[in-house]
Design brief:
- The protein is α+β, with helices and mostly antiparallel strands.
- It is 18% helix and 32% strand.
- The chain has four helices and 20 strands.
- It has helices spanning 108-119, 162-169, 222-248, 254-271; strands at residues 7-14, 25-32, 36-37, 49-50, 56-59, 66-69, 71-73, 79-85, 133-137, 144-159, 173-174, 178-179, 184-185, 208-209, 276-285, 288-299, 312-313, 318-321, 327-337, 351-359.
- Strands 3, 4, 5, 6, 7, 8, 9, 10, 15, 16, 17, 18, 19 and 20 form a 14-stranded antiparallel β-sheet that branches.
- β7 and β8 (79-85) form a beta hairpin.
- It starts with 6 loop residues before the first strand and ends with a strand.
Length: 360
């Protein structure tokens, strides 16, 4: 297991008196890193989640160093801050698929339970091995933890929820037919395999859905959002350029006008760098900010000025170094995205996963 996980992997060779064919036996032990806060001491049934009623405390495995995790639970069952989970479902909920929907449909509560299967699951390449972890909802600046005394946080582990990853990769509808005009998959399109489920049987293929935060099936994959925004920028620039060209060249031909429009369209389309889901981590000491950094949970080409060719979505735990903050007594998490509603709120859920808080 990698050191970026919640344990150190120690491999020791057993050296015998006689060595055959230059080989040696090996064994591997896993021990908790003594100053990691892993939340594994907190009681939670397997493959489930819990939204605590009040802030809660977790300790490092051996040193006893504590962090207090914030949560604010609403009367309707929603929350901001952090929930506790160990779920790891990485595919579309079967019961939300029009191909496999139960007879009689689902109630609102049953639909929400199906969505929560992904909303409280960490999205990883392989089966998750970190046991308990936190699911943060960054609304209202409630996603933070505090420390009992000023401490250097060496690093934390962050990941996407399955809810965010599936919407980012495919959107609210996933089939084998993409409408290039709307950038949405066709609800009546050809069947596909449910992502991350390896099964060659065509009987388990279908069309899959996952409502967005607004309860509709209108959420686009991130590339679709990028294409539509770039098209809109191109059209606006083209219209402006065309009007100016016609005014300056009233006797111009249609071909010349089309060329002026297309040139402006292409330039604006190419220039717009858009397409990200970003986690911002900020450290505080005695109420004052001591630094912040951004972590791309999802990124499209041209967005990161330092790495313009990068295109990726985090599909496993990623270690984020926080030593640059120095000593802190509070660490706050916020999320932002280029994909927003007219009021500026994120279209994707403002949620992520957190684990492995290593204290120095």
């Amino acid at each position: 297991m990698k050191i970026t996980q919640k344990y150190i992997s120690i491999t020791a060779a057993i050296i015998g008196l006689t060595v055959f064919n230059s080989c040696s036996d090996r064994f591997e032990n896993e021990i908790p890193y003594p100053n990691d806060v892993t939340f594994n001491e907190l009681t939670l049934d397997r493959f489930t989640y819990d939204i605590p009623d009040a802030p809660f405390t977790a300790e490092a495995s051996e040193t006893g160093a504590e962090v207090t995790v914030n949560v604010s639970k609403n009367t309707d069952g929603t929350y901001s801050g952090f929930a506790l989970s160990n779920k790891n479902f990485r595919s579309y909920p079967w019961e939300l698929s029009p191909t496999f929907e139960p007879a009689g449909g689902l109630s609102d509560a049953e639909t929400q339970d199906a969505i929560n299967t992904t909303a409280f699951s960490v999205y990883t390449d392989e089966v998750n091995r970190t046991e308990n972890y936190l699911v943060g909802n960054t609304n209202d600046d409630n996603a933070y933890f505090t420390l009992s005394s000023p401490t250097i946080v060496e690093h934390v582990l962050v990941a996407n929820t399955s809810y965010n990853a599936l919407l980012r990769f495919y959107g609210s509808i996933y089939s084998d037919d993409l409408d290039t005009d709307t950038q949405m998959y066709d609800i009546n399109g050809a069947n596909v395999s449910n992502p991350n489920i390896e099964n060659p049987d065509e009987a388990v293929e279908g069309v899959f859905t996952l409502p967005g935060v607004d309860g509709t099936l209108n959420t686009l994959k991130l590339e679709g959002h990028q294409v539509l925004e770039k098209r809109a920028a191109g059209e606006a620039a083209g219209d402006t350029a065309l009007a100016a060209y016609i005014q300056a060249n009233p006797s111009s031909t249609q071909e010349e006008q089309d060329e002026a429009y297309q040139e402006a369209y292409d330039a604006a389309y190419d220039a717009l760098a858009i397409g990200d889901v970003t986690l911002t981590i900020e450290g505080f000491l005695n109420g004052a900010s001591v630094g912040s950094l951004d972590v791309y949970l999802a990124l499209l080409k041209g967005v990161d000025p330092e790495n313009p060719d990068y295109v990726y979505t985090i599909t496993d735990w990623r270690r984020v170094e926080l030593t640059s903050f120095g000593e802190v007594d509070k660490v706050l998490f916020k999320m932002s995205s280029s994909y927003v509603h007219p009021d500026g709120t994120m279209v994707y859920p403002s949620t992520f996963c957190l684990d492995g808080i290593r204290l120095q």
